[in-house]
Amino acid sequence: MLPNTQHSLDKLESLLKDLGYKVRYEKGNFKTGACMLQSSKVVVVNRFSNLEMKISALVILLRDMQTDSGMLDEKQKQFLRNIKQTKLTI
C-alpha cells in the first residue's frame, strides 16, 4: 500500500502522465475523489479532497484501467503491477 504522502501522489500523477493521461484538479459535484471523462485521456480529481482520498481515487482508477505499459520504463511498469495487485482498505 502506498503511504499517504505528497510523493506518492506525485508518483501516481507521473505514471498517469507517462501513460498519456492528463490529470486535472477541479471542483465538481462528483462524489468520488476522481473520474475519467468519457473514456478520454483526462482524469479529473476533486481538488477539495484530502491527500488520502486523492491517492485512493487515482489508485482505484489505475487498478481498473486497461493500460498499455509499453511506453513505461521498467521501474514504472513494476509500480503499475504493484498497484494492480493491491487491494485498497479504507
List keywords for this structure.
3 helices; 90 residues; single chain; alpha+beta
Provide an overview of this structure:
By secondary structure, the chain is an alpha+beta fold. The chain has one domain (6-85). 43% of the residues lie in helices and 14% in strands. The protein has three helices and three strands; from the N terminus they run H-E-E-E-H-H. Strands 1-3-2 form a three-stranded mixed sheet. Strand 2 and strand 3 form a beta hairpin. The longest helix is centred in the middle third of the chain and has 14 residues, at 51-64. The radius of gyration is 12 Å and the shape is globular. 19% of the residues are buried.
Could you give a quick summary of the protein structure above?
The protein has one domain (6-85). By secondary structure, the chain is α+β, with helices and mostly antiparallel strands.
